[in-house]
Amino acid sequence: MTLRLLTGAPRLQARLTVAALAALALIGTQATAADSDDQKRPNIVFIFADDQCFDTIAALGNSEVETPNLDRLAQRGTTFTHAYNMGSWSGAVCVASRMMLNSGRFIWNAEPLYRNSEQERKAGRWWSEYLKDAGYRTYMTGKWHCRANAEKAFDVVRDVRGGMPQQTDAGYDRPQVDPQTGEVTDPWSPSDPKFGGFWQGGTHWSEVVANHSEDFLRQASEESAPFFMYLAFNAPHDPRQSPAEYVAKYPRDQIQLPSNFLPEYPYADAMGAGHGLRDERLAPFPRTPLAVKTHRQEYYAIITHMDAMIGRILDALENTGRADNTWIFFSADHGLACGQHGLMGKQNLYDHSVRVPLMVIGPDVPAGEKIDQPVYLQDIMPTTLELAEVEKPEHVDFQSLLPLLDGEPSRYESIYGAYLDRQRSIRTDTHKLIVYPRAGVARLYDVVADPHEQHDLAQSAEHQGTLRKLVAELKELQASMKDSLDLNL
């Protein structure tokens, strides 16, 4: 801190006694200490994908997709291989996931606050508000989908996006095959900007996120305050659009059909994922291998395009000179079926739709490691509060990941799942139980022997003990979650 005396103020100069000078020197010392504290506290970069399934990263086992920059994160940090979203009270699963993330509350504690989330923010019970109070320069760009005012929740805000890009009729119920001639018809092109969508405004929305992130990081490199960046891509949400060269990386005839492919899911209507649901209308009924491969082609292409933008952000972070004191978190709000189990959307409780990638990179975080303990993606929120030395607020239900990085076990014995009043689930280390109360149906899977959840064991006499045990555990978990839904079993 530099003290500048005003030569044109003789009375002030006359009164600068030894005591006053000593006081000013103390202020200077305190300011220097504050600057030092700013430099010690880590920067936090949160990168958030939309609709990205846990198994869509090359470094984590998917040999079809190209994700060099997400691979780079996996190699630099630790991956939580079993991270979940709890589900949703809304058909727009993104809404519930993001409300839980920013409020820190479990699903049925977050749901009644959703409409009044701006009041929660004003009261300071909000992720970014806690970090602002801790002295962080906060920044946000991309998808928000919360009712709290993003412009006021962060210090710097650029291009707040809605829930999804603009849709066109051409993007649904495609591609079609003429049963007589076998001719394929598809009015949609994933790389044609004329459809709007991700190109609405002239620049692909993933590129916009990268552009704004680079701008902010250039500014942050000149400031001493720690920063928190909330970078929320709309990708790979539909309409899945990317430049032609990215689509060309994935020839449709080389895309593999998921091992758990089904033409139609037998309980789609009872579970709330039937023909009327928007996500499910993206592909024709019944599902065909051609349609599923087409949608997966476009899914991989937009993920690879987003990955390139993430690479730009990582490079810009390195250029600040502050990367060594920065924690990076990458995750997604939920997964996506994209043809698995005869489903296209995320309104179900199979792992492909509730399980997400979660990678943590930071000082002293083990590189290239994996932790298979069960966690929720919203655990990122209290983790960052702990890094910022913010005492965990009483209302925050989720748990910090830092103890797990130090080798401690997860605080969650099992994972809870819910969708509207249509579905409930519990997942342990060995099994998953899914219940459709309206149909009075339970489905049981051995997730060790059957990780793609293809073989329902609920009717097997051999597994009735496991079924009864999980039903009882699910009911206990419901009670702890303030969930009064009757399972009808």
From TrEMBL:
Q: Which GO terms describe its molecular function?
A: arylsulfatase activity; metal ion binding; transferase activity
One Pfam family of this chain: Sulfatase
**Coiled coil spans:** 460-487
Disordered: region residues: 165-192
**Superkingdom of the source?**
Bacteria
**Which terms are listed as keywords in the entry?**
Calcium, Coiled coil, Hydrolase, Metal-binding, Signal, Transferase
Q: Which cofactor does it need?
A: Ca(2+)
Signal peptide, first to last residue: 1-33
Is Transferase found in the keyword set?
Answer: yes
**What range(s) does the Sulfatase N-terminal domain occupy?**
42-389
Family under the similarity heading: Belongs to the sulfatase family.
Quote the protein name from its UniProt record: Sulfatase-like hydrolase/transferase
Recorded source organism is Roseiconus nitratireducens
